[in-house]
Amino acid sequence: MAVDQILVGAAPGDAVTGIALAMRDLLRLDGPSEIYARYRDPVLAGDVHTLDELPIGGRTAADVLVYHASIGEPDVMAFLEGRPERLIVHYHNMTPARFFRTFDHRLSQLLEIGRGELAALRPRVCGALADSRYNADELETIGYRDVRVAAPPVDFHGLLAQPTDPSLQRHIELYHRGPRVLFVGQLLPHKRPDVLLGAAHILRTYFGIPVFLVIAGTPRVASYAAALQRFVLESNLAGVWLAGPQSASRLATFFRHSDILVTASEHEGFCVPLLEAMAFGLPVVARAAAAIPETMGGAGILLPGDAGPALFAEAIAELLDDPALRVELETRGYERVLDFDPVQTRASMHATIRELAA
Amino acid sequence: MDTPPSVDPNGALVARLQARIAQRRAAGEYPPDLEWDLDEHFRRITAYRALPMPERLTEALKVLDERARFELVPIPVGSSVPGASKALSRVAAAVETQTRDLADQLRSFAEGVRQALDGVIEAMAAFPATVLAQIDAVQDSQALLDVRQHQVERALDLAGRRHHTLTTIVGSVCGDAIVDPVGHADLVARLVGFGPVLDLTASPVFSAMLTAEEIVLCEPDGSIEAQLGSLLNGALGAAVVVDAAASLSTRELPAVVVELARLVRQGGPVLIESANPASWWATATSDRPVTAAWPATWVAELFEAAGFSEVAIEWRGLPPAELGAEAGAGAADGRLAALLLAPARYVVTARR
């Protein structure tokens, strides 16, 4: 029995691609296993095949395809419908299209299409798993049954082992002398980095705290990234760095040299950066939105889902002013990270896929 | 080793942070609309959308041009068979004529497609300057509308707070039990919409609240009769006398009522609010002497005598319930209980 994985897009650094690669290595212990993608970064040519490279001949219903669903793609849908293999859906969540309508019409269409495709695939699917209970609930609302939950493997050990980037370290130590607040994530509208910019403005202007806010992540939607830059310029916000995409080493350096991790995201299917920050001993502040409360597990400051810049500013100021609270959250964070031991999460996800494929 | 204090980040802490924000707002440490302004600023930035430039389309057209040459490749006519070359040449000539004709048609069609696509590029290039500008103008108007709506909401909120402040001031000056703020607002509402309002009270509260109406004030120190005498017949839409009636003499009040009958237009409301001289409670709680000269029924009779219609008495300012209970239980004399329990104030309403 072959168990292959299907991705819409495969790119280095992409979380879903990372999960697929980790799974492939484990699935190969049981039999043949490859990854196929509709769109593939050429860098991954050795690891990921294109869809047209997956043969039909010799494949039967004894074989399995694991489809990683995170966005719509009509080509992939048509491909899946024509395959003889059984189908397992691994749902990583699809951000509601409404967040993207202003910035990227095509992307918003694909997200809209994606939810329709998920519903249409249901009769073909022999098993489903999701990264979080929140994601599983979403699948179940469109008719999926018995959705298994398996947390994604987060490679804390690999990130903790990354060397500090000396150039970045020197830059931070020279220019970021106040309290340092970090956001990690792609620059996407639903992650609401604009709220964090507002909080930084309040902290500096009204509280007199010379906070430095680093927003580290790939600007996936150019118009949204441009809007953020313009907001920083027009507001004359000092101490804000839109740092762009980061290597693992630079990311580890940011974690090591920050005081707090903060996110105002309104929609997350899991939210890996929360756990990464906890692994580095950072207290986290986030909104109670989507899967965030589930991932955080009480190990950070969870603000109401509609918290605005003022509440974020107050929470950050409170953390900076209260060492006992920081220690408490640091301890809770370490404890929480233990729940997501990468070896165990990988084994658990592998076992779930094997069980669904049996 | 000391155990770190246990915290509840998701409950008490958030409540405390929210309370702190409320305190900062109350203390004026934040501008009133700080968060709204930040959000609106970003929203307006995102309203300007970037359109993709047509360079990619131009590149695609270059490829199309490369493929649209439709050049004819000569048909080989050479042959070792005797006479075949000549026959092939004739066939080739015929085929070439047909093919050339087809190629010309293809070339013509391709040129048409090219021109159409050039038009598309031109339209795309012009799009930001025309259509996008109009879209932005509409979005700007929308944003402005949102701002105005917000300003209106703020103004309403401010008016509410101002009213509360004014009534509190009046309450502190005149005594809460005597001047009922709700009653004032109620009186004001009855005067709106009839035209100029005579305010014999000369009350800043009424002046503030009657913002939509023209106010005619009487100088409290001057002769009221003389001031009213200077006004033309039907010059007023309505009239109000709050707390001043008790200061008018037994000669002045009837004269004022007669003058109001002359000055207020047909259908206009006239209100006189005064302390109730029959109330021990009014006497006990007023910081000014309450004359016994004008019981409510007397004032009502004056209006009726002057030709006003719909004359009615409304009682206001009941004493506290505990006083009533005490009087009812302890007073042997029924008249004493009646005095104690009588409302502190009255409003006589009439319509011209």
Write structural notes for this entry.
- The complex is a heterodimer of chains A (358) and B (352).
- With 358 residues, chain A is of the alpha/beta class.
- Chain A is built from 14 helices and 13 strands.
- Chain A folds into two domains: 168 residues, Rossmann fold; 182 residues, 3-Layer(aba) Sandwich (Rossmann fold).
- In chain A, the strands form two sheets. Chain A has a seven-stranded parallel sheet, sandwiched between helices. A six-stranded parallel sheet of chain A has the order 10-9-8-11-12-13, sandwiched between helices.
- The termini of chain A are close together.
- Chain B is of the alpha/beta class and 352 residues long.
- Helix content of chain B is 56%, strand content 9%.
- Chain B contains 13 helices and six strands.
- The N terminus of chain B is likely disordered.
- Chains A and B meet through helix 7, helix 8, strand 13, helix 12 and helix 13 of A and helix 1 and helix 2 of B.
Beta strand % of chain A: 15-25%
Order of helices and strands of chain A: EHEEEHEHEHEHHEHEHEHEHEHEHHH
Q: Within the CATH hierarchy, at the fold level, what is the topology of the largest domain in chain A?
A: Rossmann fold
Order of strands in the sheet with most strands of chain A: 3-2-1-4-5-6-7
| CATH architecture assignment of the largest domain in chain B | 3-Layer(aba) Sandwich
Low-confidence residue ranges of chain A = none
The chain-level structural class of chain B is alpha/beta
Q: What gross morphology of chain A would you assign?
A: globular
Please bin the fraction of helical residues of chain B: 55-70%
Strand line-up across the major sheet of chain B = 2-1-3-4-6-5
